Amino acid sequence: MARKSSRSLSGLLAVGLGVWVILAAFPFLWMAIISVRVPVDAFSVPPQLLAPFTLENYYELWVVDQFYVKFFNSAIVTLGVLCVSLSIGCLAGYALSRYEGNLGFWLLMVALVFRALPHSTLLPGYQLAFAELGIWNRYETLIIVLVAINQPFTIWMLRSFFANIPKDLDEAALVDGCTRTGAFFRVIVPVMWPGIVTTGLFSFLLAYNDFLISSQLMNADKQTMTAALSAYINADDDAYKLMQGIAGAVSVTIPLIFLVLFFQRQLVSGLVQGAVKG
Amino acid sequence: MRLKTLIGFVLPSVVAMILLIALPLVGVIGLSLWNSYTKTEMVRVEQSTPTGKIIRTQPRPVLDETGKPVKVWEFYGLKNFLSVLDVDGMERAFAADRSTNPVTGAPQSWPERMGGVWGDIANLSFWGALSFTLIYTAITTPLVLIFGFLIALGVHAVVKPLKGPLIFASLLPFVITPVVGALSIKWLFLDNAVITVMLQSLGFGKIYFLQNAFTTGFLVILYGLWHVVPFAFIVLYAGLQTVPQDAVEAAVVDGASRWQSVRYVIMPHLAPLFSFVTLIHIMDAYRVFEPILVFSAGQGASSLQYLTYYLLNGEQNFHKASAAALLTVVGILLLLIPLILRTWRTHREGA
Amino acid sequence: MHRVSLSALVSGAALTLLMAGPALADCGFTGRTGTVNVLANSFPVLDHMAAAMKACAKDGLTVNVKLTSQLKEEVEQAFGSGASPFDLAQVGTGSFTNLAANGSLQPITDLVLKYKAKYDIQYPMLITIGKEVYGIAFQTNLQHLFYRKDLLEQHNIPVPKTYSEVLAAAKKLKEVGAVENPFSAAYKPGWDLANEFTNIYLSEGGKFFADGSAEPKFQSPEALKTLATMKDLVGYMSPNALGLATGDVTTAFQQGTTALGILWATRAAAMDDAKVSKVVGKVGFAAAPAADIGAPAATTQFWDAFVMPRSMKGDRETAFLLLMEATKLETMKAAPDLANWLRPGISVSQYAKGVQESVAAQAPSFPTEPYFSLVLAALGQQVGDYLAGRKTAEQALSEATRAYTQSAKEKGYLK
Fold this sequence. Notes:
- By secondary structure, chain A is mainly α.
- Chain A has helices at 2-34, 39-42, 56-64, 67-98, 102-116, 123-133, 139-164, 167-175, 180-191, 193-209, 212-217, 225-233, 239-277.
- Chain C is 42% helix and 15% strand.
- Chain C is built from 15 helices and eleven strands.
- In chain C, strands 1, 2, 3, 4, 5, 10 and 11 form a seven-stranded mixed sheet that branches.
- In chain C, strand 1 (34-41), helix 2 and strand 2 form a beta-alpha-beta unit.
- Chains in contact: A-B, A-C, B-C.
- Chains A and B meet through helix 1, helix 4, helix 5, helix 6 and helix 7 of A and helix 1, helix 5, helix 6, helix 7 and helix 9 of B.
């Protein structure tokens, strides 16, 4: 009896997981399939499972339209956000995990409220100020804006990682004559790498996936891939452009796939850290 | 740690947040209390374009000595908020004569009249957006938790070589760029698209997913689940790894069924994770935007952040858009305040 | 598999080279330096014009052209700010009106006079208010009737000239089951839907405003008739009608699921491209139907133009010269079918038929009152509510009027 129920349970399990995997991956798979078709086949009525193969959409996008420029922009912005956000986030996260007074608590709570703000709320303010100051359309500007938006989350997450590192560790270093800064760099940072990697992955996702802010603050040749994509996908005037947009969407997703493949374990451990303490 | 050290360490992050989050927010508050427009005068003028020449009276901007258009600023106080909340519209909804049905002319009962009032209010942009935002949050939150937990249990139970591919596939919808994700879903549900045709051949008939508020809302919710369930799954799955194995085994030895060990051993252990996922999801659900835009909703399924976007881009009214954005923030604060207060109490007791 | 992909890549490359068409003419000026930032729509025609501008980017001159799908929002925000990040922008009729009303545009009369001879600026290209030139237009566009020649012939249906004929034709097509959805048009709530309302309403003889004022006048018998026509049309559209954008209507034609529709003239050529269409040679073009016999065609004429902001960072003469390069005869001639070019004698193919017939049938210009965009915003929502059955026609119109009045007051057009 028990074995029978266990067998039907594992059957249910297989079916359930199978359905979920199809649901999760199918939209992306379908997009990848139609990205190697000409428009008339891609949006065919009725839909076709098989259709002639072509790389024209990719060729047009990457070679003719020089999408690689956007790729480098994405790389610069994403790496910039990653470095700045993590370095200043580590300092803040560490200090907040060691400080016991009320100020630290309220800083964290304010950060939580900032985390909840809709990003579109801030946009009108940016546009007016940056055009006036003449710092519009610069990598630095976009990076620092994305860092600020990302910071509440980074601080929260890093703080919970630091809280897991025993206080005795840095206090011992302090006793040995290190300053706070010295203790932080010599003792804490070396054991913090897993936490930094995980938090970094989330910062990466935020900077890489951001559409709203990047598309508004950057001009022509400095746009990121995600922002540039919308000009293709919303160009419903032209089926060719749309197809290039789909090829672009697949291209944008490929780095994310590698990211998930390489950092799966950190992603999982990072989430559970952030969750348990957050 | 001393206060001075703390300040030194947090300064860069705090400066960035003050300059780029807090200051713009103050600006938005300012904008919401004012109204501004370009001063114009009506003049008779000839205008010629490729499609013809017209002479008519039309507004022309008034310029100052330096040749710049003159801007008029009026202090509006709470007027922008009242107009976003559509207080007038609500008054009309309550004041309307509902003794008879406007279409059939039949006399209406009290519940029908109340239904009419509610229907009219839900037709007002703000209240429609608020109600869909709340419905979206209320429906997706439990489903995200349930599905996420079930998948986590499932992946936890399969043989090891399958785990990697399963986690990988599950994470896809979570990491994908939201606009791209929403589009990839929309293309499956259009007229004659893959899913529509598949459902038809399975005997469900031809379903038109964008035909009314209900079906569009359904699609938005479906997208929401697809996008967020992986997040819940991965958090809960990670949590499952930390459940002490001997506790589960002890429960089984004591004669607990599978369900009982899940209910009384695993779920209590994961309780903080459930509340973490709930918190994050409520914050995100409250500002749902991309699917509304992509599914060309607005038609019956609107959201608070979509309303802000519409006021900004459709009506081009910075001031009203600011008011709408602030009302959204107020909503978030209402959700967060109980939580903050509770944490504050534990913090003080701990200190 | 590997071989297939490689050969496809090669043939794709060869095709692209073929499709690139005649090479663009060289840049017609030299000796200018600095940076000029340009903003334009992401339509193929603007891609083409951007290439003409970029041909001048050498010897110390940098030309950045941002092609965006959110042109209206971006250009109005940029030009409205104290110092516009863009020195030159392409705008449609609606944006031009808004920008002019806000005083955000720069008069370019002096530059037009200086370069009129060199670049052969044609009179219809100039957009003037009073005595000043504020923009250089390069193309016109309008929506007209697209129809399936084969299906109409097969079922003995004449090409409809009025909306009652459209409805009769649609009814017949539906009865015989000739096609999935007899009629299609972009009825997505917002700008698209309000624009469809405008088309029919103007043909009905409706007025939006009292003469010489911003006073709303669209709570009228003509508006009720327009709404009734629209509701009838929805009956022959896809049940997803209120989700249809222009791209969806184009696809419906190209995939053969619709037989009659209102679409932009710029889409005509794409009906005969076998790589995007299954109905090559089967689609005909005619004037937009009228609301009634003898009424003007139910569509409005649009134009696209380049304008410069009142406050700019780049050099105005360099920006103007780039504009001249984009709109010179050689640039237009290099791609005659990409647009309905404003210089005479360039765009005269069969795909211009719908435009010519509509203009001959007295299609009016798109309304250029500065407060018209506020009407569109109000109607875009309320007409949708009416068609979805959430409001009666009278309710929808009175709420649209109320919403318009409020926003016109906020913008200072009404007291």
